[in-house]
Amino acid sequence: MTESSERLYCNACEMRLNSALKDVDTASLEAIDTTKACNAFKKGHVIFEEGSAPKGIFCIHDGKVKVYKTGDEGRDQIVRFAKAGDILGYRSLVSGEPYSVSAAALEDCVVCFIPQATFFEVLKSDEHFPMTVIRLLSGELQRAQKQIVNLAQKPVRERLAETLLILREVYGTDDGDSAALAVKLSRDELASVVGTATETLVRTIADLKRENLIATDKKKIRILDLEGLIHAGNLQD
Amino acid sequence: MTESSERLYCNACEMRLNSALKDVDTASLEAIDTTKACNAFKKGHVIFEEGSAPKGIFCIHDGKVKVYKTGDEGRDQIVRFAKAGDILGYRSLVSGEPYSVSAAALEDCVVCFIPQATFFEVLKSDEHFPMTVIRLLSGELQRAQKQIVNLAQKPVRERLAETLLILREVYGTDDGDSAALAVKLSRDELASVVGTATETLVRTIADLKRENLIATDKKKIRILDLEGLIHAGNLQD
DNA sequence: CGAGCGATTGAAAAGACTCAACCACCGTGG
DNA sequence: CCACGGTGGTTGAGTCTTTTCAATCGCTCG
Q1: Is A100–B146 a contact, with Cβ atoms under 8 angstroms apart?
Q2: Which of A126, A136, B209, B236 is the most exposed, having the fewest neighbouring CB atoms within 10 Å of its CB?
Q3: Distance between alpha carbon A182 and the CA centroid of its chain, in Å?
Q4: What is the pLDDT averaged over residues B11-20?
Q5: A200 strand C contact, CB < 7 Å
Q6: pLDDT of res. B1
Q7: B86 vs B90: CA distance, rounded Å
Q8: Using one digit for the tens of pLDDT, what is the confidence trace for A123-169?
Q9: Which phi and psi angles does B88 have, rounded to 5°?
């Protein structure tokens, strides 16, 4: 599943500068560097799985990752998208429980693993890191609560429009085509972000295409009318 | 709206012992005690409101509180229930943004207000408090993510069953009637926990009554068949 | 070329929402 | 004391959204 990658050094890691490890002190960085392991994950492969015991945290060096939770009937619900610089798995680690979510690579990834002991060591010794973790959790909680309201109150069409805008926000657009979302998701995956059945998602996408708000070519989605999509999502204004 | 209550001392506060302030050191406790303000809130009154700027955190000394978010169409969605010993409003404080949720008293409450400066001071000086906050946020995030999956995948009936079980878990049952939930919610409020229309909620409650899983008398809800309700919620087994 | 998977479409059914009416209870004011 | 009005709760009917099941399509890969 995972093949170990060439050695990476946090000091030299340009990703670190816009990550949670940006302000970590030199000693902590050293500790991380000497204990971490770097792994490559092929597209689709699971990085960690709901229900298993956390042994450390994951820091995405390269690639895109979905974080999802599996419902009773086996249907997945994507709860977060992560990218290079993001850290994963720390929530379960601090609560000392099995993972409450799974993470899988949306494309080929390189992910560093920082062992539990090191993580807690940094949490204890670094002056700023606890506050960083607090802010990360705080941001995730806020987004989760917003998603709760959306799922409870908004129709599929609006949720889809907002999802597309969020994907654009998080992952950006293709080089050379600023309308094309830089992330490729299957219809199933898109449905499990929006929280609907795949067929409903397909039909709703077809609606947005018919209205010339978006265009699709296989998994590539282009946003043709940003304002229109914002409007379709019933956002601000 | 709020009337200041008689002075309370954290040292002597029995609620503190099962709260986030349990392990706070003496100096911090002192700082909290000398800067905090205690207020009484009548049932229904708002403790803080989504969109306004946080000035500190709230510590519930007595009473039950709902935390909710208002959707675009003005419908509320309850995202959390709080009780004596719980602290509120710290999420917005640490992220330095306006409140992303509102809080209101479900019954007459006494709530202490700890100013921002004190909160951050304790966060900095107390050895354990940052970790406590991390764990609180972590727990809330986990519950929020579970709720996301429920809203996306479970029908109203199952969500209602689970909601009743959660209310029992959080607030317990009446003295002398271990089947009766200790919290009284309006149908509107119950609907805005479950995430459905009031009429649908009423009908679904009627269903559960017809099946002798619960009984109601005004706002009082009695759980007649715990196993049955667990089953109706499609939980474990 | 054929198997298989993901995407799409159609049709029917289920679930939930809205609108409207009605009921029951409660407190107020005459 | 009782009629009144208001609020919250309940019920009914119809509609709309969304789901489900089934079938088809298109593409990729062996």
Answers
A1: yes
A2: B236
A3: 13
A4: 89
A5: no
A6: 47
A7: 11
A8: 999 999 999 999 999 999 999 999 999 999 999 999 999 999 999 99
A9: -130, 150
Residue among A153, A172, A154, A161 at smallest CA distance from A228 = A161
Rounded distance between C-alpha atoms, residue B186 and residue A215, angstroms: 46
pLDDT (average), residues B42-56? 97
Contact assessment for residue B159 and residue B168, using Cβ atoms and an 8 Å cutoff = no
Cβ contacts (< 8 Å) between B119 and chain A: which residues? none
Flag whether residue A95 sits within 8 Å of chain B, measured between CB atoms. yes
CA of A186, closest CA in chain B: separation in Å?
18
| pLDDT, greater one: A95 or A8 | A95
pLDDT value at A30 more than 70:
yes
CA–CA–CA angle A192, A225, A179 (5° rounding): 75
Q: How confident is the model at residue A1 (pLDDT cuts 50, 70, 90)?
A: very low
Determine whether A112 is exposed, middle or buried from the number of CB atoms within 10 Å of its CB (0-12, 13-18, 19+).
Answer: buried
Q: Which nucleotides of C are covered by protein (CB under 7 A)?
A: 6-11, 15-20, 26
User: Is B95–A142 a contact, with Cβ atoms under 8 angstroms apart?
Assistant: yes
Question: Which sign, positive or negative, has the C-alpha torsion A142, A144, A146, A148?
Answer: negative
A199 touches strand C (CB under 7 A): yes
Whether residue A141 and residue B139 make contact (CB cut-off 8 A), yes or no, is no
Which H or E run includes B133? helix B129-153
| Degrees to nearest 5, angle at CA B107 with B104 and B113 | 55
DSSP letters of chain A?
-EEEPPP--GGG-GGGGGSTTTT--HHHHHHHHHH-EEEEE-TT-EEE-TTSPP-EEEEEEES-EEEEEE-TTS-EEEEEEE-TT-EESHHHHHHTS--SSEEEESS-EEEEEEEHHHHHHHHHH-SSHHHHHHHHHHHHHHHHHHHHHHHHHS-HHHHHHHHHHHHHHHH-EETTEEEEES----HHHHHHHHTS-HHHHHHHHHHHHHTTSEEEETTEEEES-HHHHHHHTT---
Cβ atoms of B145 and A147 within 8 Å: the answer is no
Structural contact between residues A33 and A11, judged by C-beta atoms closer than 8 angstroms: yes
Alpha carbon distance B194, B183 (integer Å)? 15
pLDDT at B5 over 60: no
Whether residues B148 and A144 touch (CB distance < 8 A) is answered with yes
Distances (CA, A) of A219 to A131, A215, A216, B43, B141: 39, 10, 7, 52, 31
Summarised one tens digit per residue, pLDDT across range A170-216 is: 999 999 999 999 999 999 999 999 999 999 999 999 999 999 999 99
